[in-house]
Amino acid sequence: MRTRCSYRCAVATQHSACPSTRLTFVTAHYPQTLFPLALLGLAVFWKGLMKAREKKSHSVTLAIQALILFLPTISRRICHSFRCSTYDQGDYSYLDADLGIDCNTTKYRLMLTYAGAMVLVFPLGIPLLTYQMLYKNRHGLNPRKWEAAMTDKEVEEKRKESIHDHPIGGIARIFKPHYM
To answer: Which of 43, 75, 92, 94 could join 87 via S-S bond, C-beta 3.0 to 4.6 A?
Structure first.
């Protein structure tokens, strides 16, 4: 005999009569935020390995570009961790992104703490890191602004060298300074 699931059970898949094969918000949240960080760590490790062998590696540049590409998606998922809705005049509170997560539980509070830390890493940290790297390399990206006496050929050479040597160079390459 097949039993019917209640509405909450069908949404949350917590009842034994309901299949629980659905990927939950929490089980998807951790890998989607940790994988990009692991990828960046691996890229930094690989670059160090190549530098020790005196070879060039663009792994960090590619990892930073991938992080910037996926930043809106990751940031959106992180921000969905904070919004709960109340039901039955405030008796129940569930996460809007996954109605199977009760906002009054320890599991949710742990996820909320993790999401708070990830806000510092992704929506705030990655743009600030990118800005810091571009600011640090600003003299090489737009040399004419800092050394007005340079010829066009010297400016081009310094810019190419700076873009090639710096991890953020791959991103800066698509932008042209005001003098060109």
So the answer is: 92
